[in-house]
Every structure is written in C-alpha cells, then in structure tokens.
Amino acid sequence: MEQPNGPPIEVDFVQAEAELRLLTREQLEGKWDYKGPSEDAQAKRAFDEGILPKIKRCIELTAILRRTNTGPAKATGARGKRKAKAAPDLERIKASLLD
C-alpha cells in the first residue's frame, strides 16, 4: 500500500481483520451504546468522544481490507456484438387481437 508522502506501508492483513472482528463484536454486543443517564450531556459527549476513534479505525480497516480483497481484473476477450432484438410489430399484434 502506498502512503501519499512516503514509502509503502506494510500491512498485516490477518491482524487487521482480527482487529476489525474484535471491534465489530464489541459494537454488536452493545459496548458502544451509551448506558448512562440521558440528561447528563457532558458524560454522553465524553462517551461519544471515546467511541469516535474506534469508529474511525473500523472505517480505516474496512477500506484497507476492501482494497486487498479485489481479485484480478477480468480478462476482456473478443466478443461478438449481439444483434438487437427487433421491436415487436404493435400494429400486427393489435390487428390479431381485434380479429
């Protein structure tokens, strides 16, 4: 993977996938849900600020793993053009229905 302002970075894809699974499991178990009093805005804001880095990390890991999971490009071979289907003759169909 290339970094815009530097040398390529080596990524351990197994470790990245394991970290993403761990974070996803935490989220699914409800550990990212605020469980404190709803009227305490300061505590909720502090909780949200603590979760934000985890959300950003999940997005980064997903982007890294998505880029690596793309397979080789499909080969484009010589393919003949398909003939377009002729439009149905609506006048003939109407005439046959009226008979």
Radius of gyration (CA) equals 28 Å
How big a fraction of the residues is strand? under 5%
Distance between the termini: 70 Å
- Roughly how much helix do the residues carry, as a percent range? 40-55%
The helix/strand order is HHH
What do you see in this structure?
This protein is an all-alpha fold. The chain has a domain at 39-70. It is built from 3 helices and no strands. It is elongated, with a radius of gyration of 28 Å.
Main features:
single chain; 99 residues; mainly alpha; 0% strand
Write the layout of secondary structure elements.
Elements: H1 13-28, H2 41-68, H3 90-98
Q: TL;DR?
A:
The protein is an all-alpha fold and 99 residues long.
